[in-house]
Write a structure and sequence with these properties.
Layout (H helix, E strand, L loop, with lengths): L3 E4 L17 H7 L3 E10 L17 H10 L7 E11 L5 E5 H4 L4 E6 L4 E10 L4 E6 L21 E6 L7 E12 L8 E4 L11 E3 L5 E10 L8 E5 H14 L5 E2 L3 E4 L2 H7 L7 E5 L4 H4 L7 E5 L2 E2 L3 H9 L6 E8 L2 E8 L1 E2 H4 L14 E4 L2 E5 L2 H6 L9 E6 L4 H4 L7 E5 L2 E2 L3 H13 L4 E8 L2 E8 L2
Antiparallel strand pairs: 1-12, 2-3, 2-5, 3-4, 4-7, 5-6, 6-7, 8-9, 8-11, 9-10, 10-13, 11-12, 12-13, 14-21, 15-16, 16-17, 17-18, 17-19, 19-20, 22-23, 23-24, 24-25, 25-26, 25-27, 27-28
């Protein structure tokens, strides 16, 4: 059986190394009162097309099976479903952090405390992008709580403690070490701490503590072939969680910075085509209407620094932009035509912009040619209609790809549209031939193409040899 990455469903750090303590009991005793179990109740709609016993209509057993289902509450009636997870209190007045997937869709949420008693909770806000939810309970007395620590100074090999409600067994503690840092699983804002502390179903939303009793992660997922812990667990780092929680607490939603570009990582062949010594930075593939366009950014720009810090790759840029204050004007250094330029970009808000659809929308006599393993046609009204492109769409349409070519290996297919070559627009076969000649004259071994498929752009470097 293959490994599966599972969301464990509802289910200031020292700068020097420490040896293992003689006992973790004091730490467990200190933090336990702030850790909670979370029970959610959800109404499940009546089944209309699910499996039922194979009993022929009119059979003497038909009525028996109907009565049996009704007694078991499994007839076509709405039913109540419960799930379990974990969380932790972050303030005396009752704010509780957990995973979004623990409480998503719940009709009722109950928070059970380590020292007994339970309280109903309401949802203050959620962030599906980081799988974080903020809840609030009302208590007559101040609650025990824990504080966030600095996950950025935590190191591989440091001791950590996880606490939660694994497999619905109640409050439980496990310890281990940080196995890896800065893991990315699936999201743009991922920054997971990997740990071998036992994390199982039901631990979701529970805290991962450092040895000072500070929360440096929220236990979220496990890698497992069977649904149980094999020592590969993931906790979203407090560097991400603390910022999300602060926004949920203040606004009831997240408010992330927005640059307004589409980007891709720089591969070795793309770096060579751009004349770079190393593959780093974020390559701009498209600049729809937005902050970057207003600042003069163009497709083909290579983003080197953002707000004074070097950009290693697209993931780092997305996180850094998202964590920057909306409305702030930042300096973005780009490489354009071999020269560095500094653009002042005033960031917008991602959540507002995500629903925007970039506009698209000239006509020419179709001319075909075979170049670099591609059969290319100049744009025509017929091709625009076939490919469902806008009336002003331009470029060279790929009508066929040699399956033995590098272009095929790199994913180019019929229907793709090449809009730029050598970071200059191409509208004709002659344009492309001129770009190839320019690259060869400059001693380039490859040519960088901007390719669009279904409106989504990406850069592909093809060898000229």
């Amino acid at each position: 059986m293959g490994l599966a990455l599972l969301l464990a469903p509802a289910l200031t750090s020292p700068a020097i190394a420490r040896g293992a303590p003689e006992s973790f009991a004091d730490l467990a005793e200190k933090i336990s009162p702030a850790v909670v179990n979370i029970t959610t109740t959800t109404t499940v709609a009546a089944s209309t097309g699910g499996p039922s016993p194979l009993v022929p209509e009119g059979s003497p057993f038909e009525e028996f099976f109907r009565e049996f289902q009704d007694r078991g509450g499994q007839g076509n009636r709405p039913r109540r479903s419960q799930a379990l997870g974990s969380g932790f209190v972050i303030s005396a007045d009752g704010f509780v952090v957990t995973n979004n997937h623990v409480i998503d869709g719940a009709d009722e949420i109950l928070v059970e405390f380590f020292e007994g008693g339970e309280l109903p909770a309401k949802v203050i806000g959620t962030d599906p992008n980081t799988d974080i939810a903020l809840l609030k309970v009302e208590s007559e007395k101040p609650l025990d709580f824990v504080e966030f620590g600095d996950s950025d100074v935590a190191r591989v090999g440091d001791w950590v403690m996880a606490m939660g409600n694994p497999l619905g067994q109640g409050f439980s503690v496990s310890v281990g070490i940080i196995s890896a840092r800065n893991r990315a699983l699936s999201g743009s804002y991922d920054d997971y701490i990997q740990t071998d502390a036992a994390i199982n179903r039901g631990n979701s939303g529970g805290p991962l503590f450092n040895m000072d009793g500070e929360v440096i992660g929220v236990n979220t997922a496990i890698l497992s072939p069977n649904g149980g812990s094999i020592g590969i667990g993931f906790a979203m780092s407090s560097a991400v969680v603390e910022r999300v929680v602060a926004q949920l607490k203040e606004f009831g939603e997240t408010r992330r910075g927005w640059l307004g570009v589409r980007i891709q990582d720089v591969t070795d062949d793309v770096a060579e085509a751009l004349g770079l010594e190393e593959a780093k930075g974020a390559l701009v593939t498209d600049v729809p209407e937005g902050p970057a366009a207003k600042a003069g950014m163009k497709a083909g720009d290579l983003i080197l620094t953002f707000d004074g810090k070097d950009v290693e790759d697209t993931r780092e840029l997305v996180r850094r932009v998202g964590n920057t204050e909306i409305g702030k004007t930042v300096d973005v250094v780009v490489l354009r035509d071999g020269k560095e330029e500094t653009l002042a970009v005033t960031l917008g808000r991602r959540e507002t912009a995500e629903a925007a659809v970039p506009a698209s929308a000239p006509a020419t006599e179709p001319v075909e040619s075979e170049i670099l393993g591609l059969t290319l046609s100049e744009m025509s009204d017929d091709l625009r209609e076939q490919l469902e492109l806008g009336a002003n769409a331009d470029g060279l349409v790929v009508t066929d790809v040699d399956e033995m070519s590098e272009a095929y290996e790199k994913g180019l297919r019929a229907g793709d549209v090449i809009t730029e070559a050598g970071q200059q627009k191409v509208a004709s076969i002659e344009d492309l031939e001129n770009r190839i000649a320019d690259a060869e004259d400059a001693g380039r071994k490859s040519l960088l193409l901007l390719v669009r498929r279904g409106g989504e752009p990406r850069f592909v470097a093809l060898s000229l040899e």
